[in-house]
Specification:
The protein has 10 helices and no strands. It has about 200 residues and is mainly α. The radius of gyration is 19 Å and the shape is elongated.
């Protein structure tokens, strides 16, 4: 299957999930919405659980791509971390799957795929990847921290040290996660991150 057709199926599944609980999402409806046969859908994902894993994997990838964009948006290290934190809060508020992956709180409306790898006999490379392990909240936070450290290392690490930089990056993301659970006050998460980093002289 062409990547565009696979994306269309995942888009259709995501749209269906926004309208009804995952338990009520039918494969035949997802296929029809994407303009393909149900057999084509099964050929690509193997099962409804395979579709769910692929959807969760795609949303995790999309969130991390947004982190990379946020980290590249500014020159100032503090602003870059604030932007990544702000994106985390926005992504979690707009995408229930991202929020569930970040917090580990999966509602009954969502698919709840096991995070460990599952046996895969799929000939589809993208599905074999989705059948691999999915990130836990801690692992996803680690991916974000490591991306932030890599993005800021050249300008910050020579002054503060790698360990201090990693601590600052993890603190910024953990502040963002706290704001996912309890929305911040005036100024939002970006202001909270800037002030915390300034007080601790981390960046």
């Amino acid at each position: 299957m062409m990547p565009a057709a696979r994306e269309s199926l995942l888009d259709a599944a995501h749209t269906a999930l926004a309208r009804r609980p995952w338990s009520a999402v039918r494969m035949v409806d997802v296929a029809a919405a994407a303009g393909v046969s149900r057999q084509t859908l099964y050929n690509e994902f193997g099962s409804k659980d395979g579709l769910a894993r692929a959807l969760v994997r795609r949303e995790a990838d999309g969130y991390l791509a947004g982190v990379d964009r946020a980290l590249a948006a500014y020159a100032d290290p503090g602003e870059r971390l604030a932007a990544a934190a702000e994106w985390t809060v926005v992504a979690a508020s707009q995408n229930a799957l991202v929020k569930a992956m970040l917090t580990g709180c999966w509602s009954e409306r969502l698919p709840w795929p096991t995070l460990s790898a599952v046996p895969s006999t799929s000939p589809v490379p993208a599905q074999r990847r989705a059948d691999g392990p999915l990130p836990s909240p801690g692992e996803l936070l680690g991916h974000v921290r490591d991306r932030a450290v890599a993005a800021l290392a050249a300008s910050v690490a020579p002054v503060t040290g790698v360990a201090e930089l990693a601590g600052a990056c993890e603190l910024a993301i953990r502040l963002a996660l706290s704001c996912v659970a309890a929305p911040p006050g005036e100024g939002g998460v970006a202001a909270l991150v800037r002030e915390t980093l300034r007080r601790h002289q981390l960046v």
